[in-house]
Amino acid sequence: MVSTFSTLLLGIALGVQHAAGISLNVSDEVSIRQAAETAARGLLSYYTNNETTAAGQVGLLTNPPYYWWESGAMWGAMLDYWKYTGDTAYEKEIMAALTAQLGPKNDFIMQDQVFDTGNDDQSFWAVNAMTAAEYGFPSPPAPLPNWEVVAANVFNDMAGRWNTSTCNGGLTWQIYASNVNGLNYKNSISNGGFFQIAARLARFTGNATYADWANRIWDWTAGVGLIDESNGYAVYDGTDDTQNCTSIDHDQWTYNAGMFVYGAAAMANISSLSSSASSASASDWTSRAQGLVNGSAATFFSPFPNATNVMFEAACEKVGTCDTDQFSFKGFLARWLSKSSILAPALASSVDPLLEASARAAAQSCDGLGNSSCGTRWWVGGFDGETGAGQQMSALEVLDSLLVGRAGAPLTAGAGAGASSSSASSSATTAAAPTTLSTVTSSSAASTTAVGSTTTPAVSATSATSSTITSSVRAEPASSSVDMGGLASAIQSAASKPAV
Ligand SMILES: *[C@@H]1O[C@H](CO)[C@@H](O)[C@H](O)[C@H]1NC(C)=O
Ligand SMILES: *[C@@H]1O[C@H](CO)[C@@H](O)[C@H](O)[C@H]1NC(C)=O
Ligand SMILES: *[C@@H]1O[C@H](CO)[C@@H](O)[C@H](O)[C@H]1NC(C)=O
Ligand SMILES: *[C@@H]1O[C@H](CO)[C@@H](O)[C@H](O)[C@H]1NC(C)=O
Ligand SMILES: *[C@@H]1O[C@H](CO)[C@@H](O)[C@H](O)[C@H]1NC(C)=O
Ligand SMILES: *[C@@H]1O[C@H](CO)[C@@H](O)[C@H](O)[C@H]1NC(C)=O
Ligand SMILES: *[C@@H]1O[C@H](CO)[C@@H](O)[C@H](O)[C@H]1NC(C)=O
Ligand SMILES: *[C@@H]1O[C@H](CO)[C@@H](O)[C@H](O)[C@H]1NC(C)=O
Ligand SMILES: *[C@@H]1O[C@H](CO)[C@@H](O)[C@H](O)[C@H]1NC(C)=O
Questions:
Q1: Distance from the alpha carbon of residue 413 to the mean position of ligand 6, in angstroms
Q2: Tens of pLDDT along 174-221?
């Protein structure tokens, strides 16, 4: 220990720059792909359920500490890796994982995971179905539906949960009555997940119902003050519906901004929307997306003057209080900023420098445990000693993000997406031809009148009725869901105390 430490001090004193971490040249595609490959392999070193025969465990990281949602997040990172690098090595694992967790209604509701399933958790799996559709990932084997249908099933679940009894709308964090902590918390990640799925379905399908919902969800979120458009587009964590959403938890997390920015960029990419008078225009959506980029740049980047444009988790990283969930969050902001710069190209000039500097710093952090394990704090110039699946995921996502341009524009329904069989390697390695959504015209809007802006689409009932949940519920802490914001924690601790 002592000699290592003094060698390090000597090195610093002599100004020696040790080559540390994963080597990365951000101008060299081969170098980026190699770096991503190392990070992806490191991430999957945490995945030990590859060939498990335990029911329901295929696709899942070890839980605890990695709750159900984070496994979904991992496959999202791996789908992007598959598409951006053209490396098909993990394609079978991705397919097996996504199909194993689809659930009986093909909507990522797993009966044995209901205690770990809030709206946000379901979203982290559901966005993978959108990505699979947009990137031409092979469809699930028959009789399973294609990825677009899976995403639409989740959308229908969520639209059915929209609850106007309080706060004039919104989704609560939790879904099931058995999961008491968070049933009264209307939070950004849950509504943001619904927003992003609606926006991507709107772009993918051209169906105005989805666009109307994306408008409604944004308007609600901004209306209650969770997106603070007049204050640098800050995205706050959540709000208490027992107070009709008048009190707000002002914590800011990278993934909340990330979830919304990509939905806004998808809306900006729809060339013409005319479904309802209150709908925002594509240029409104571009400025919203740009506002979220600006807000993110101000809050989540450049933690110190020596770390310009390096991403950090502002609410916990400097003080060292980030938890297992939160170690992965930076990855999602990287993922969605990069994709946003494709769908709203005007964002690229502000997004690219943030991602390049962050990827460089993240790669340097991947110098741990003798096996390129990635660290938590990208701004220390090396490995900080704190690693795990979340850190691997964040590093992989920010490295992936430098390759987003290779994927071309995400497909739309009319552009060859959802082919039931394709040569995986060719779909992974061939950039999709840029395509734009065919205009959502007034006539197509009119044709959806029956399910239009004022009508909630039919809910596909889930098999998870409260009576069955009550009997199968396992006692677990509320921390089993994604969001760990201050108000959520307060609700959690209040719930464990006698009522005042
Ligand atoms: C990084 O890659 C670019 C493009 O291949 C190359 O021109 C440049 O020399 C590389 N830089 C270093 C330091 O290797
Ligand atoms: C590195 O090694 C550690 C300890 O053996 C292991 O737990 C971890 O999964 C490995 N990580 C990577 C990134 O390969
Ligand atoms: C999963 O199992 C298959 C079959 O043994 C193997 O080829 C593959 O490398 C494994 N994948 C991972 C990520 O361990
Ligand atoms: C809507 O919210 C109210 C107030 O929290 C609650 O009593 C009601 O059960 C909710 N409705 C649904 C369908 O979840
Ligand atoms: C609750 O909040 C909503 C949305 O902010 C508002 O429209 C409604 O009037 C409020 N209801 C009450 C009873 O204060
Ligand atoms: C649009 O989407 C809604 C919600 O899923 C669905 O009910 C409706 O049938 C769709 N309309 C068209 C024209 O496909
Ligand atoms: C949508 O994104 C594609 C890919 O970057 C781009 O070519 C196209 O111009 C965008 N369309 C609109 C309407 O912004
Ligand atoms: C974002 O920041 C840029 C550069 O500071 C500024 O020009 C632009 O007006 C900002 N846009 C929004 C929507 O905040
Ligand atoms: C940057 O500054 C911070 C705060 O002084 C320090 O903790 C960190 O190690 C520095 N990073 C580098 C790369 O020198």
A1: 13
A2: 999 988 888 999 999 999 999 999 999 999 999 999 999 999 999 999
CB-ligand 5 contact for 224 (6 Å cutoff)? yes
Minimal CA–CA distance to 383: which of 393, 372, 394? 372
At 298-334, the pLDDT tens digits run 999 999 999 999 999 999 999 999 999 999 999 999 9
Pairing of strands 238-240, 248-249: antiparallel
Give the Å distance between the CA of 230 and the centre of ligand 7: 27
Tokens representing 322 are 């980030």
Place of tokens 């992989």: 396
Long-range contacts of the stretch 100-105 (C-beta < 8 A, 24+): 100/56, 100/58, 100/59, 101/56, 101/58, 101/59, 101/60, 101/68, 101/71, 101/72, 101/125, 102/140, 102/144, 102/150, 103/463, 104/463, 105/153, 105/460, 105/462, 105/463
Tokens of 129: 């179905």
Nearest to 317 by CA among 308, 304, 306: 304
Q: Is 302 in the pocket of ligand 6 (CB under 6 A)?
A: no
Whose CA is closest to 29, among 323, 405, 324?
405
Protein residue with its CA nearest to atom 12 in ligand 5: 244
Q: Given phi > 0 = left and psi -120 to 50 = alpha, else beta, which region is 208?
A: alpha
Ligand 5 centroid – CA 167 distance (Å)? 5
- Residue nearest ligand 2's atom 12 by CA: 42
Q: What is the pTM of this model?
A: 0.85
Which residues have C-beta within 8 Å of that of residue 369, sequence separation ≥ 6? 387
Q: Which of 38, 41, 44, 45 to mutate to test the pocket of ligand 2 (most atoms within 8 A of CB)?
A: 45
